[in-house]
């Protein structure tokens, strides 16, 4: 059985109490930099991405400067992170596409973003919500795990999880909820050995109440 509206509100209130400043942990100054950082973040920690983008953005902060780099040069700058060859290829191709098709601007709609190389549903939602303030719930590994454990969602796939979260969470809280679930997943509700005994959600959480630990 799903959570009641009252339980959902209580969970969101407690998450807000725990993470009043939850937000994107990638460093960026423009939508373009956010796009590059999110493309780099696949299967890599935000901390590692920030180390790499600090170098990359110091000399190549915008599209025109980034376009001066070859794929190999980008590889050399980002090689500390996983999948760097693929990511370098995506960056070169997406920069070209932004220049040719979007007049050098990051597009602000889901349908346009999803066409960019290296940009999937999650990345498009992160860009929309953080750079364009369009409410969205990007479901990454943390959002997926934590929301399904708590009971805010009940699905074994990402797309249904996103839809179920959009159903139970008020639209104006979608973006904030995305961040709070990520923060909770990184600080308390770990993939292995979640800290249920210390978790303020343990009386409401489906996983904890079933004593799955
Ligand atoms: S009670 Fe445990 S499983 Fe539930 S949200 Fe907290 S840490 Fe995660």
Salient structural properties:
binds iron/sulfur cluster; Endonuclease III, domain 1; mainly alpha; 213 residues; 2 domains; Endonuclease Iii, domain 2
How is this structure best described in words?
The protein is mainly α. It contains twelve helices and no strands. It has two domains: 5-21 and 137-209, Orthogonal Bundle (Endonuclease Iii, domain 2), CATH 1.10.1670.10; 31-131, Endonuclease III, domain 1 (Orthogonal Bundle), CATH 1.10.340. Helix 9 crosses helix 11. Helix content is 57%, strand content 0%. The model has no long low-confidence stretch (mean pLDDT 95). It is elongated and about 55 Å long. It has helices spanning 5-18, 31-40, 46-59, 63-66, 71-78, 84-101, 110-113, 121-131, 141-150, 158-168, 174-187, 206-209. The longest helix has 18 residues, at 84-101. Iron/sulfur cluster is lined by residues 146, 149-150, 188-189, 194-196, 199, 201-202, 205, 207-208.
| Uncertain spans | none
Which strand-content bin applies to the residues? under 5%
Ligands (ions, cofactors included): iron/sulfur cluster
What is the chain-wise order of helices and strands?
HHHHHHHHHHHH
CATH names the topology of the largest domain as Endonuclease III, domain 1
Can you tell me the CATH architecture of the largest domain? Orthogonal Bundle
The shape, in one word, is elongated
């Amino acid at each position: 059985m799903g959570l009641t509206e009252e339980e959902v509100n209580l969970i969101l209130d407690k998450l807000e109490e725990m993470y009043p400043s939850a937000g994107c942990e990638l460093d960026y100054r423009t939508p373009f930099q956010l796009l590059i950082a999110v493309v780099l973040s696949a299967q890599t920690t935000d901390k590692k991405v920030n180390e790499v983008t600090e170098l990359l953005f110091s000399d190549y902060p915008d599209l025109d400067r980034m376009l001066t780099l070859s794929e190999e040069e980008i590889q050399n700058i980002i090689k500390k992170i996983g999948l760097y060859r693929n990511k370098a290829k995506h960056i070169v191709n997406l920069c070209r596409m932004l220049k040719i098709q979007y007049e050098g601007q990051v597009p602000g709609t889901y349908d346009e973003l999803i066409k960019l190389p290296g940009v999937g549903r999650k990345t498009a939602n992160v860009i929309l919500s953080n750079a364009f303030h369009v409410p969205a719930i990007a479901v990454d590994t943390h959002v997926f795990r934590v929301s399904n454990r708590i009971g805010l969602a009940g699905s074994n796939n990402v797309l249904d999880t996103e839809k179920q979260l959009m159903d139970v969470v008020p639209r104006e809280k979608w973006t904030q909820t995305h961040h709070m679930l990520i923060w909770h997943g990184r600080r308390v509700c770990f993939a292995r050995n979640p800290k249920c005994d210390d978790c303020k959600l343990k009386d409401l959480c489906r996983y904890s109440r079933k004593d799955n630990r």
